[in-house]
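Ops channel
N.P.: pipeline sanity check, posting one input/output pair.
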C-alpha cells in the first residue's frame, strides 16, 4: 500500500492475531540451512551435505524477507532483511533479484561492527573491486582476498578458497554468536558459489579452450564475471563450443550477454572470423550493434551495421571476405591476417545482399537469429522464412546457427526444420524477475481498487484499496460542466495510475493502436495538465537536463507548439511505429538509464529492445480487430521487472470492465486469463500457411466456404483481376453476413504479398535449366520451408501446387532466365517487376537525362505514385500536395516545416465520408513508411532494370544518382555528408544535419570518414551534441573511446 501511495489511514489493518515477524525464524532458518549445506558440500562434510533444502523454498524465504522489508512495518530491521533476502535470492540462483536487494542495501548505513555481514555484502557485490583492509575478521578477509584475486586474474583457485571457508566455519561453530554463525555460513556459501559460477571457472570448460585464451578478456573490469543460469545452460548445451541450437528463454534471463559469449568463443577458437547477427527491426539492430561495439572495442573485432538501404554499401565489400573460408577444405581459415567481424542487419538487408552476393553466407561461420520467432508476422514473416530457407541451403555444414527467442513455444519443431535435429533445443522457464498481475476495479460507491492474483486459483488473492481516487479538475473559461480525472476509460485510468506509480520506477502504458497512444498523450497535454491536477507530471521524477534536451530536439523536429513537444516538457513520451527512428532510440536509452519515467507505446515495446520498466499498464489487448497474440503479450510483459534493475514487475489491466463484468461477460474475462497464461501461447507458425486461411467477414465470425482457400490462392497466382471482380459481388450475395469489399480486398492483398515473395524467391534460384526442370526444382524448394515442415499432409500438397503454379507463371510471363534472376534481386513480385521494366524501357531517355538525384526523383514520381500502395498519394487534394511533401522530406525539412507546407496548400484527404487535414502522425508515417521504405524499394528495382539496358558509362552516372536518392528517401536527408553522419550512429535527421553543417568545410562521404572526423575533432562535436538527448552523446563517447 505504501508502493501505491495509499494514505496510511486507509491501509487495511492486519488481524490482531497475525504477527508477520513470526515468519522470520522459518525464512531465516531455510536460507541458513541451505547455506550450511552448501558449505558442508564445499569442505567435504558428506554427512551434513546429504540433506538438501529445495531451491524454491530458499527463493520463497527470500521473497518473504523482501516483502516484510517493503511493508515498512519495522525499518530497524531493514539492513538484516535486505542482506538476508539478497543472500537467499543469490543462493537460490536468482542473481537478478539479488542485485536489486544489494542496490537497496547500499542505500542504508552499514553497522560498522557487524564485520561478517559487511563481508557477506562484499562477497555478493563486486568483490574484485574491494581491498578489504578495514575488515576486523582476518578469516573473512582471507576469503574475500581469495575471491578478489580469483576474479581479477583467475588465480588462487578453489582449494585456497575452500580452506579459508573451512577455517571460518570451524571458528564460527565454536565461538560465534547465532548471528555471526549465520553470516559465516552465508559468506562461505556465497563465496563457494561465486567461484563455482565464475567465468574463470566455467568458460574454459564450456568453450573447450585453455584459460590462457580467455585471460585477456576476463582480466578486464567490464568482462563477465559470473555466469547466470541461462548462460550456464547454453554452456552445458555446447553453444560456446560451436554447437547449433534453438534457444528459448524468458526475457531478462541474460541472453544478450550469452550472445556476446557465443560470438567471442567462435572468434577465440578460430572457428570463424565472420559472424552474422540477424535482428528483425532497425532499432534492435542498432541496440545490438551498440552493445557489441562496446563489448568488443578492446579486442580488435570489427562490429558493423550496414545501412538499411537496399543497395551495396560502399564500406562493405563482401567480396573481401573470401579469405575467411577455405571452401575446398571446409575449414574456416584462422591463419589469414584479417580482423574478425560481426555484421548486424535486418532480414530484408541480408536478403538483398544474398541476391547480389550469394557467397556471403558461405563465408560466415556463425549466424545468430535474434528474436527468431518472426515466421508468422505477415508479409515480413514470409521474407524471414524464405531468408532462412536460403541460408539453410548456403551455409557451410561446419557453421554454427543459433536462433534465440523468449516466446517460441514449439522450439523442437523449429530446430528440426532449421538444424535437422529437434533435440538441439536449449530451454528454460526460470525467471530472473517476478511479476504480479492486477486488474483495475471500480466498485459502486467506493474509490477504485486494484485486484491482484485473481487470474490464478493457486495464488493468494488480495486487493489494494483507494488506488484510483477521482478528482474534480478546474474548469476552463466558459465551461459549465465539471470534469473529473480519471474517467472510467481505460486510457484515462492508465495515465492516472502511471502518475501515481512512476516515482517507484519506469512505467509503460500499452495501447493496441497508434491512434490510441496519441490520444492519451494529447489528452495529457491539452486537457489534464492544462487544467491542473494534484498529481505531479512525470518530469518531476525525471532528469531535468534530459527533459530539456528532449524538448530541444522535439522543438527542432515537431515545433514548439506540437503536442509531442508539450508532452516532452511534461516528461511523457510516445513510442510507436510513427515515432521517428532516432527519437525512438533516444527514448529507449533514456528509459534504460532511468532519465525519463513514462512512455505510451504500442507493440513496438515487444520488439526485442531492452527497455526496462517496473509497471506495464495495459489499456486494451486488442490490436485493431484482433487480440494481441499470447506470445507477443508475454514478450511485452517481459519488459516489466527487468532482472537486476527492479526484481519485480507489475502488469495492470486498466479497463475496469474486465474484472467488474467478469461474470456477465465471461468470454472477455476468459480471453484475458488466456492471454496471461504462458501455456496458452500459440506455437510459432508460418505466414506461408496463411495462404490457406479462409476469407472472413468484417467481424471475423463468418467464413467463406466457396471458393475454398486453395482455390483463392490459385486465383491470386493465375487470375488476380477476376478475383477482384468476384469480390465485389460477395456483399450483394450475402447481404446479412457483414462482408465488405474493403475488408475482403485487404485480406486478398495480404495473401498476394505472400505470392509475390514466393515469386521473388523462386526467380532467385532460377538457373539455366529447362522450364520443366525449374518447375520440378520449385517442388523441391517448397519442401525446404518451415511451412512445409509444419503443414499437414493436405497442406503440403496444396503448398507444393502453389509453388508449381508460381513457377509456371514465371515461365509464362518472364521466359528469359537472365531476366528472372535480375527480377529476383529486386525483392518484388512479377507484376511490379514487369511494370517497372516496361516503364523504364519507355522512359529510358528521361532517366538517362537526369542530372541530379532531385531531377531523377521528378522523373520517377509518376511511377512511384502508380505502384505505391499508399492511397493518399492519389486521393489527396490538391493533386501535387504530397509531391511537395516528398521534396521537403528530401530537403531535410523538419516535420513541423513539412506539416506547414501541407497546411499552406490547404491539403486534406478523404476519411470515410468526411475529409481530414494532415497532422504530425500522418506526416511521419508518409515520410518514413511510404517515402522511406516503399519508394526506396521501388527505386532499387528501377535501378536494376535501367542498368540492364544502359551503357556502362550511363549506368555508372545513373547508379550514383539512384543510390544517393534512395538513401535520401530512406533517411529524409539533403546530401551525402548528412547521410554519412546518420549512418555513423547519429540516426536522427536533425542531429545528422547539425553535425554535417557544423563541418561545412570538410564534407564526408561515408560513415567511416564521419567517425574519423569525430575522433580528430572531439571537442567541436561534443559542443554540438551537448543540447541533444544523452543517447547521442553515448554514441559519441563510443566512437571516441581509446
Amino acid at each position: 500500500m505504501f508502493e501505491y501511495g495509499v494514505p496510511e489511514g486507509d491501509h487495511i489493518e492486519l488481524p490482531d492475531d497475525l504477527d508477520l515477524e513470526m515468519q522470520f525464524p522459518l525464512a531465516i532458518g531455510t536460507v541458513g540451512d541451505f547455506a550450511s549445506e552448501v558449505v558442508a558440500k564445499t569442505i567435504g562434510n558428506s554427512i551434513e551435505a546429504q540433506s538438501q533444502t529445495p531451491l524454491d523454498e530458499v527463493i520463497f524465504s527470500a521473497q518473504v524477507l523482501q516483502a516484510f522489508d517493503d511493508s515498512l512495518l519495522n525499518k530497524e530491521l531493514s539492513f538484516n532483511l535486505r542482506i538476508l533476502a539478497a543472500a537467499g535470492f543469490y543462493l537460490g540462483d536468482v542473481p537478478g533479484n539479488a542485485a536489486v536487494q544489494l542496490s537497496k542495501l547500499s542505500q542504508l548505513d552499514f553497522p560498522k561492527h557487524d564485520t561478517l555481514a559487511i563481508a557477506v555484502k562484499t562477497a555478493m557485490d563486486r568483490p574484485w573491486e574491494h581491498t578489504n583492509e578495514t575488515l576486523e575478521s582476518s578469516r573473512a578477509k582471507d576469503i574475500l582476498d581469495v575471491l578478489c584475486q580469483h576474479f581479477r586474474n583467475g588465480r588462487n583457485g578453489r582449494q585456497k578458497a575452500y580452506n579459508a571457508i573451512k577455517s571460518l566455519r570451524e571458528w564460527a561453530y565454536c565461538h560465534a554468536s547465532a548471528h555471526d554463525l549465520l553470516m559465516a555460513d552465508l559468506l562461505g556459501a556465497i563465496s563457494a558459489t561465486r567461484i563455482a559460477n565464475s567465468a574463470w571457472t566455467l568458460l574454459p570448460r564450456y568453450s573447450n579452450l585453455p584459460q590462457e585464451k580467455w585471460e585477456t578478456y576476463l582480466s578486464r573490469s567490464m568482462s563477465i564475471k559470473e555466469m547466470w543460469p541461462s548462460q550456464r545452460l547454453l554452456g552445458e548445451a555446447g553453444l560456446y563450443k560451436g554447437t547449433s541450437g534453438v534457444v528459448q528463454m524468458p526475457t531478462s534471463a541474460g541472453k544478450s550477454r550469452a550472445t556476446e559469449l557465443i560470438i567471442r568463443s567462435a572468434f577465440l577458437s578460430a572457428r570463424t572470423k565472420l559472424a552474422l547477427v540477424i535482428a528483425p527491426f532497425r532499432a534492435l539492430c542498432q541496440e545490438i550493434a551498440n552493445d557489441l561495439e562496446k563489448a568488443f572495442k578492446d579486442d580488435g573485432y570489427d562490429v558493423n551495421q550496414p545501412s538499411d538501404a537496399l543497395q551495396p554499401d560502399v564500406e562493405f565489400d563482401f567480396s573481401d571476405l573470401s579469405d575467411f573460408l577455405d571452401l575446398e577444405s571446409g575449414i574456416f581459415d584462422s591463419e589469414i591476417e584479417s580482423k574478425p567481424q560481426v555484421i548486424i542487419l535486418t532480414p530484408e538487408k541480408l536478403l538483398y545482399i544474398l541476391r547480389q552476393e550469394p557467397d556471403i553466407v558461405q563465408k560466415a561461420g556463425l549466424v545468430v537469429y535474434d528474436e527468431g520467432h518472426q515466421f508468422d508476422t505477415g508479409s515480413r514473416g514470409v521474407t524471414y522464412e524464405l531468408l532462412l530457407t536460403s541460408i539453410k541451403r548456403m551455409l557451410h555444414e561446419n557453421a554454427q546457427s543459433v536462433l534465440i527467442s523468449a516466446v517460441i513455444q514449439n522450439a523442437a519443431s523449429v530446430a528440426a526444420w532449421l538444424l535437422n535435429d529437434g533435440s538441439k533445443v536449449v530451454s528454460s522457464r526460470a525467471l530472473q524477475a517476478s511479476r504480479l498481475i492486477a486488474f483495475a476495479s471500480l466498485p459502486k460507491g467506493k474509490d477504485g481498487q486494484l485486484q491482484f492474483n485473481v487470474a490464478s486459483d493457486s495464488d493468494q488473492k488480495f486487493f489494494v484499496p483507494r488506488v484510483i481516487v477521482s478528482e474534480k479538475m478546474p474548469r476552463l473559461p466558459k465551461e459549465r460542466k465539471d470534469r473529473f480525472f480519471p474517467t472510467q476509460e481505460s486510457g484515462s485510468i492508465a495515465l492516472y495510475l502511471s502518475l501515481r506509480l512512476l516515482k517507484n520506477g519506469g512505467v509503460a502504458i500499452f495501447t493496441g493502436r497508434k491512434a490510441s497512444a496519441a490520444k492519451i498523450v494529447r489528452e495529457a497535454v491539452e486537457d489534464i495538465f492544462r487544467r491542473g491536477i494534484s498529481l505531479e507530471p512525470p518530469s518531476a521524477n525525471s532528469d531535468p537536463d534530459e527533459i530539456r534536451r528532449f524538448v530541444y530536439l522535439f522543438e527542432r523536429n515537431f515545433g514548439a507548439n506540437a503536442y509531442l513537444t508539450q508532452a516532452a516538457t511534461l516528461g511523457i513520451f510516445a513510442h510507436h511505429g510513427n515515432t521517428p527512428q532516432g527519437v525512438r532510440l533516444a527514448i529507449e536509452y533514456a528509459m534504460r538509464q532511468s532519465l525519463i519515467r513514462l512512455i505510451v507505446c504500442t507493440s513496438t515495446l515487444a520488439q526485442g529492445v531492452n527497455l526496462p520498466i517496473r509497471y506495464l499498464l495495459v489499456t486494451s489487448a486488442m490490436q485493431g480487430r484482433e487480440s494481441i497474440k499470447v506470445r507477443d503479450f508475454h514478450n511485452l510483459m517481459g519488459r516489466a521487472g527487468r532482472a537486476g534493475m527492479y526484481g519485480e514487475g507489475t502488469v495492470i489491466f486498466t479497463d475496469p470492465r474486465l474484472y467488474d463484468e467478469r461474470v456477465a461477460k465471461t468470454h472477455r474475462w476468459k480471453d484475458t486469463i488466456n492471454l496471461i497464461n504462458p501455456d496458452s501461447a500459440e506455437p510459432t507458425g508460418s505466414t506461408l500457411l496463411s495462404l490457406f486461411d479462409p476469407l472472413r467477414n468484417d467481424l471475423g465470425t463468418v467464413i467463406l466456404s466457396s471458393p475454398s482457400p486453395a482455390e483463392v490462392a490459385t486465383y491470386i497466382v493465375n487470375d488476380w483481376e477476376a478475383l477482384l471482380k468476384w469480390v465485389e459481388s460477395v456483399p450483394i450475395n450475402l447481404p446479412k453476413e457483414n462482408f465488405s469489399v474493403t475488408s475482403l480486398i485487404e485480406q486478398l492483398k495480404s495473401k498476394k504479398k505472400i505470392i509475390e515473395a514466393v515469386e521473388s524467391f523462386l526467380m532467385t534460384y532460377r538457373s539455366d535449366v529447362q522450364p520443366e526442370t525449374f518447375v520440378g526444382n520449385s517442388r523441391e524448394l517448397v519442401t525446404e520451408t518451415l511451412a512445409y515442415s509444419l503443414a499437414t499432409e493436405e497442406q503440403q500438397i496444396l503448398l507444393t501446387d502453389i509453388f508449381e503454379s508460381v513457377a509456371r507463371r514465371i515461365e509464362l510471363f518472364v521466359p528469359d532466365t537472365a531476366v528472372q534472376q535480375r527480377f529476383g534481386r529486386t525483392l518484388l513480385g512479377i507484376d511490379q517487376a514487369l511494370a517497372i521494366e516496361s516503364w523504364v524501357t519507355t522512359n529510358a531517355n528521361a532517366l538517362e537525362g537526369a542530372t541530379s538525384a532531385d531531377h531523377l526523383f521528378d522523373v520517377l514520381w509518376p511511377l512511384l505514385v502508380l505502384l505505391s500502395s499508399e492511397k493518399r498519394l492519389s486521393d489527396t487534394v490538391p493533386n501535387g500536395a504530397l509531391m511537395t511533401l516528398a521534396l521537403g522530406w528530401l530537403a531535410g525539412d523538419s516535420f513541423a516545416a513539412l506539416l506547414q507546407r501541407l497546411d499552406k496548400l490547404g491539403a486534406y484527404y478523404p476519411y470515410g465520408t468526411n475529409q481530414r487535414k494532415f497532422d504530425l502522425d500522418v506526416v511521419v508515417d508518409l515520410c518514413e513508411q511510404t517515402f522511406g521504405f516503399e519508394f526506396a524499394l521501388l527505386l532499387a528495382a528501377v535501378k536494376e532494370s535501367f542498368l540492364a539496358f544502359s551503357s556502362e558509362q550511363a549506368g555508372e552516372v545513373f547508379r550514383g544518382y539512384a543510390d544517393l536518392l534512395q538513401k535520401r528517401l530512406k533517411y529524409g536527408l539533403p546530401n551525402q555528408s548528412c547521410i554519412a553522419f546518420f549512418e555513423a550512429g547519429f540516426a536522427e535527421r536533425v542531429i545528422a544535419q547539425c553535425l554535417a553543417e557544423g563541418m561545412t568545410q570538410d564534407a564526408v562521404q561515408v560513415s567511416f570518414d564521419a567517425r574519423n572526423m569525430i575522433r580528430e575533432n572531439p571537442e567541436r562535436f561534443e559542443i554540438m551534441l551537448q543540447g541533444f538527448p544523452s543517447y547521442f552523446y553515448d554514441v559519441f563517447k563510443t566512437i571516441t573511446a581509446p
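N.P.: looks fine end to end. The chain is about 55% helix and 10% strand.
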